[in-house]
């Protein structure tokens, strides 16, 4: 996993709330068995059918920070939604609220999902729409989002922050505690079901 | 200290707790299917890691499987690749798999309970959000992403921070013709699709106690549509009777020990929830959705709402967008909405009781001209049981299509899809844009409403027949 410290990039304003994972990446793209190359599936239906959709506008090409409305990432648990955003080039998402599973997936995979107040999101939308060249900085060191005239701190627990900054894989971390897992298994009820 | 059921189950599974870190939680059962697992197995291979507990892992094929000619090779090469990849992964890593054609194949959330693998007090995970279904047994069951699938395969644990708890109490008894599906659709419409975010919902109260095990699964299944991580119902005699005698149920002295433990799991008197919602069962009636998220629902007796009916600008905008997508006019009585397709199936309503309830309505009647009805049992066992009871004949005689088991039109990853502009009444759980096929329009309904709608061709309840 890539380390995340401070990222500065242009932003893409997605003025929708309740964007579900079926919209982020439709089910047909889930049929693949590889781990990369999901960028073509990102918002596929909107990109194909709506010329006014924000990712179809040349001025927002190359944006790396997605600014979305509330309840981003509702619906299915598909982690492909995170991969699609990352493969397309997004490093961070800013929104007032996320669906839990999506948020968990994103923070595990190194896509920084930042919770910001609705008013701040509105201001960022207005600013970025007025000038698509505006740069937004997502600073994990200081837990702060900055844009011209805006410096908003955000919350993220220390543990997740540490993991993202170090680019650490959860599995390797857990395997350090194998003895504790062994000990737990030794205490499980004898009647706990097994599949084999 | 008085504790909720969710807190008890959580506490029993903590392998390691350290200040400033998430708890490391032990996972008792890991369910696997072909869509969200390939990249996890790929990760294991790359890191040269084995599956720690293949004996706590089970796989089935469901999302991609065709529901016709299942013994022929899958026509869609991509679907075929996913299935073939799962088969290879299970064989390489020693995981038990129920492939197409196997009597225990079916939708992952139907298969677990049916085998008796889902039991009270367990932690159950699957790379699928509707894992919440298993909470009907008093298990803590939640959906996970693919990297967590890999994590569980490698370590049989997950680092997790505790969920908040919410009680949804449904007082009184349901009226005739009102089902578990109507309860949960009404709950979602009430608290919103984000209302359960961060919570485990515990469903309680008389109406919940009176539900069968299968109906409880319907309720817990759609907890995720309310935004919750999991749904739970305290285990009781209904639960124990359902589990007893199933292939993986404890036996003899183990059974008694297990039941004694399970009886201790319910929420203690006086335990506090972070949030509480109370619903009166008498207020509930058949409920259907009109929009493109499961919270956009209304009583079947009602009408399509107008954007102006909502206070917040965001809700007005999403209503406008939903009405345009659904091709609906505000004010249209729900009963006047004509459908092309009726889908009876999915992990929400594809179990034997659902098929029985629908068959009862449709028996001796005909599916309306111009309506196609697809009946897709949730598992091969459900299909077999239905055939033993003659339900297949009832559906066929009415003009419905009787299919093989799988997810089917719930998400249309197989050939069962809506065409652009087509409208369905569906017993599944999601009415998102394009969920059942590009441009398809979905109304979520109960099996009773599905059957009555198939007969009349417009959204209907059995009372309309
Ligand atoms: S039936 Fe639908 S909701 Fe259930 S597991 Fe299959 S695709 Fe998911």
UniProtKB/TrEMBL annotation, chain A:
Pfam families named in the record: Aconitase_C
Aminoacyl-tRNA synthetase found in the keyword field: no
Function: Catalyzes the isomerization between 2-isopropylmalate and 3-isopropylmalate, via the formation of 2-isopropylmaleate.
Primary gene name: leuD
Gene3D superfamilies membership: Aconitase, domain 4
Cited HAMAP family: LeuD_type1
Aconitase A/isopropylmalate dehydratase small subunit swivel domain ranges (all copies): 1-118
Subunit organization: Heterodimer of LeuC and LeuD.
This enzyme's EC code(s): 4.2.1.33
A Gene Ontology biological process term: L-leucine biosynthetic process
Reaction catalyzed: (2R,3S)-3-isopropylmalate = (2S)-2-isopropylmalate
Official protein name in the record: 3-isopropylmalate dehydratase small subunit
Pathway(s) the chain acts in: Amino-acid biosynthesis; L-leucine biosynthesis; L-leucine from 3-methyl-2-oxobutanoate: step 2/4
GO molecular function, one term: 3-isopropylmalate dehydratase activity
Family: Belongs to the LeuD family. LeuD type 1 subfamily.
Organism: Murinocardiopsis flavida
TrEMBL record, chain B:
Biochemical pathway: Amino-acid biosynthesis; L-leucine biosynthesis; L-leucine from 3-methyl-2-oxobutanoate: step 2/4
EC number: 4.2.1.33
PROSITE patterns linked: ACONITASE_1, ACONITASE_2
UniProt superkingdom: Bacteria
GO biological process, one term: L-leucine biosynthetic process
Residues that hold [4Fe-4S] cluster according to the record: 347, 407, 410
Needed cofactors: [4Fe-4S] cluster
Annotated region described as Disordered, given as residue ranges: 416-443
Cofactor note: Binds 1 [4Fe-4S] cluster per subunit.
Keywords assigned: 4Fe-4S, Amino-acid biosynthesis, Branched-chain amino acid biosynthesis, Iron, Iron-sulfur, Leucine biosynthesis, Lyase, Metal-binding
Catalytic reactions on record: (2R,3S)-3-isopropylmalate = (2S)-2-isopropylmalate
Molecular function terms, GO-annotated: 3-isopropylmalate dehydratase activity; 4 iron, 4 sulfur cluster binding; metal ion binding
Chain ranges of the Aconitase/3-isopropylmalate dehydratase large subunit alpha/beta/alpha domain: 7-457
Top-level EC class as recorded in UniProt: lyase
Family statement: Belongs to the aconitase/IPM isomerase family. LeuC type 1 subfamily.
NCBIfam families, per the entry: leuC, PRK05478.1, PRK12466.1
Function of the molecule: Catalyzes the isomerization between 2-isopropylmalate and 3-isopropylmalate, via the formation of 2-isopropylmaleate.
Assembly with partners or alone: Heterodimer of LeuC and LeuD.
Name of the protein in its database record: 3-isopropylmalate dehydratase large subunit
Originating organism: Murinocardiopsis flavida
Gene designation: leuC
